[in-house]
Design a protein that fits this description.
about 100 residues; globular
Length: about 100
């Protein structure tokens, strides 16, 4: 069996991933493993919340080390004060354009 996926890292790099294995489930597991190679990868699902996403994103940009700590702290402050109160508990699978408008 073969599984394919398109994947974009948080730095914006797009990749097409392909893996083969005896079963589709094992092929998918290989794709997940490929996304974890070479650095931190988020483990989010449709049941994850915007709070989870924001927390993972902050951790990822901190690990990448491309932004100053003061910048990351400003992002955290804005997320806590502007996004979490309104949308923090919303599940990723429930996000829609009308909800965000």
């Amino acid at each position: 069996m073969t599984a394919e996926a398109r994947w974009r890292s948080w730095s914006g790099v797009k990749k097409r991933l392909r893996a083969s294995a005896a079963t589709e489930e094992l092929a998918r597991a290989k794709i997940v493993a490929k996304t974890l190679e070479g650095g931190h990868a988020m483990q989010l699902t449709k049941a994850s919340t915007i709070d989870d996403l924001a927390t993972e994103w902050i951790e990822t940009i901190r690990i990448e080390g491309r932004r100053r700590e003061a910048t990351i702290e400003a992002y955290e402050r804005d997320i806590r004060s502007l996004i979490f109160p309104a949308l923090g508990g919303v599940r990723l699978g429930e996000i829609s354009s009308p909800l965000l408008e």
